[in-house]
Design a protein that fits this description.
By secondary structure, this protein is of the alpha+beta class. The protein has one domain: Outer membrane efflux proteins (OEP) (Up-down Bundle). Helix 4 runs antiparallel to helix 9.
Length: 419
C-alpha cells in the first residue's frame, strides 16, 4: 500500500509538469545560469525602471514648457455697452507667452535625486541577480546530486531483484523456507520506496529549473563545481561584505536620502515667471503690450520648506542607520553560512570516508557468511537496507554541503565561472 501510494504521488507530480520530451536537454552550470539571467522577468523589469529614471534625470534639468495665454479682458456686463467688445476702451483681446524660470541649482538637485534613484535601482538589480544565481545554482546542484542518489538506489534495488530469482530457486529445491521469498520481497518494496522518493527529487529539481530558466533541463552536463571546499577563506569572505549587493543597495538608498535632503535645502528659492503679452483694443483705441513678472514668496518657510528639510534629513540619518544594520547582518550571515558549511562538510566526510566504507565492508562479510551458511537471509537483507540508507544519508549530506556552498559562492553576483 505504501509503495502504491508513493507511486501515485509521483505520477501526479509528473503529470503536473509540462512534457516537452523533444526539447529536453542537458545543461552545464554556466549554461543554466546564463539561461536564468536571460529568462528573468524581474531583472528585465528592473532594467526598464533604471532606463526610465535615467530619462527622467535628463528632463529634470530642463526648464518647464512655456505657456500660451490668450483671451478677452474687461468686457462690460452692464450699461449701454454691455457684452460689446468694441465700445469700451478697457476691453482688449490679449495674447501672450509665459515662461517659468526654475533656478539651475534646483533643477540640478532634482536631477541628482533621480540619478541617485537610478543608481539605487541598478543596485537592486544586483540583489535580484545574486538571488537568482544562488537559487539557480542550488537547483542545478540539486538535480545533479539527485541523479546520483537515484542511480545508487536503482543499483541496490537491481542487486536485490537478482537475489529474488535466486531465492525462488532455493525455495523450489526445498533448501530454504518459502517465507524467505516474502522477506526479500518486503525488503525490495522498501528499497523501491527509496527509488520512488529519489525520482521525486529529480522531478522537483527539474521543475525548479524550468521555473527559473524556462528550459526543460532533464539532466546536467559538465563538471560539478568544487563545492568540497569553501569558495574563499572565511576571513576573506567576511572582508568582502562591503561588496555584497544588499549592502551596496543600502548605500545607494542612503545616497537617495542625502540627495533628497539637498533638494529640500534649496526648495525655498523662489521661481520666477515672465510673461510677454500683446493686447488689441477697438479701432478707436491704441493697442497695448506689456511684460509681467511673478515671483514666489516663501513667507512661511519655517512652517513649510524647513519642515520638509528636517523630515528629509531625518530620513537620511535613518538610511545611514539601515546601512549599518545591513553591514552587521551580512557579517552575521557570512559567519552563519560558514559554520553551517563546515558542520555539513564534517558530517558528509564522516559519512563518506568512515561510515559508508564500514557498511560496505559489513555487507561483504555478511554476504560471504551467507554463502557459507553462517548468516541468515534476514541478516543479509538488513545489511543491504542499512547500506542503502547510509548511501542515501551520505548523498543527502553532500546535497547540504553543495547547497550551502552555492549560498556562499553567490553572496555576490559574479561572472558565470562556477568554480
Amino acid at each position: 500500500m505504501r509503495q502504491h501510494s508513493l507511486s501515485l504521488w509521483l505520477g501526479g507530480v509528473l503529470l503536473a509538469v509540462p512534457v516537452f520530451a523533444a526539447n529536453a536537454a542537458e545543461f552545464s552550470l554556466q549554461q543554466t545560469l546564463a539561461a536564468a539571467e536571460h529568462y528573468s522577468a524581474e531583472l528585465s523589469a528592473n532594467r526598464n525602471q533604471s532606463n526610465a529614471l535615467s530619462a527622467m534625470a535628463d528632463s529634470a534639468r530642463e526648464l518647464p514648457d512655456p505657456k500660451l495665454k490668450f483671451g478677452i479682458e474687461n468686457v462690460p456686463i452692464e450699461g449701454n455697452n454691455s457684452h460689446r467688445f468694441t465700445r469700451e476702451g478697457m476691453t482688449m483681446q490679449r495674447i501672450g507667452i509665459m515662461q517659468d524660470y526654475v533656478s539651475e541649482e534646483k533643477r540640478d538637485r532634482k536631477a541628482e535625486t533621480i540619478l541617485a534613484q537610478s543608481a539605487s535601482s541598478a543596485a537592486k538589480a544586483e540583489v535580484i541577480r545574486a538571488e537568482l544565481l544562488r537559487t539557480t545554482a542550488q537547483a542545478w546542484l540539486d538535480l545533479a546530486l539527485s541523479e546520483k542518489v537515484l542511480a545508487t538506489a536503482q543499483k541496490l534495488v537491481a542487486e536485490t531483484e537478482r537475489q529474488v530469482a535466486v531465492q525462488k530457486a532455493t525455495v523450489a529445491s526445498g533448501s530454504t523456507p518459502a517465507s524467505s521469498v516474502v522477506d526479500i520481497r518486503m525488503t525490495l518494496l522498501d528499497m523501491q520506496d527509496k527509488v520512488t522518493l529519489a525520482q521525486r527529487d529529480v522531478v522537483l529539481a527539474q521543475t525548479r529549473l524550468l521555473r527559473l530558466t524556462g528550459e526543460n533541463i532533464d539532466s546536467v552536463s559538465g563538471n560539478l563545481p568544487r563545492y568540497q571546499r569553501l569558495p574563499a577563506d572565511p576571513a576573506v569572505l567576511e572582508q568582502g561584505v562591503s561588496q555584497h549587493p544588499e549592502v551596496i543597495e543600502a548605500a545607494r538608498e542612503a545616497d537617495v536620502a542625502k540627495a533628497r535632503s539637498a533638494q529640500s535645502a534649496v526648495a525655498a528659492k523662489p521661481n520666477v515667471g515672465v510673461e510677454v503679452y500683446y493686447a488689441h483694443r477697438a479701432d478707436d483705441y491704441d493697442d497695448m503690450a506689456g511684460v509681467m513678472f511673478t515671483v514666489d514668496m516663501p513667507l512661511f518657510k519655517s512652517q513649510r520648506q524647513d519642515k520638509d528639510l528636517a523630515a528629509d534629513m531625518s530620513r537620511s540619518m535613518e538610511a545611514n542607520d539601515q546601512l549599518a544594520i545591513a553591514n552587521r547582518e551580512r557579517v552575521a550571515l557570512v559567519r552563519t553560512l560558514v559554520a553551517q558549511y563546515q558542520a555539513a562538510q564534517t558530517l558528509w566526510l564522516r559519512q563518506q570516508d568512515q561510515i559508508l566504507p564500514l557498511q560496505r565492508q559489513r555487507l561483504s562479510l555478511i554476504e560471504a557468511q551467507y554463502r557459507s551458511g553462517q548468516s541468515t537471509l534476514s541478516d543479509l537483507l538488513n545489511a543491504r537496507r542499512t547500506l542503502l540508507d547510509t548511501e542515501l544519508n551520505a548523498h543527502n549530506a553532500e546535497k547540504t554541503v553543495a547547497e550551502t556552498w552555492a549560498a556562499i559562492r553567490y553572496l555576490t553576483p559574479q561572472e558565470n565561472n562556477p568554480s
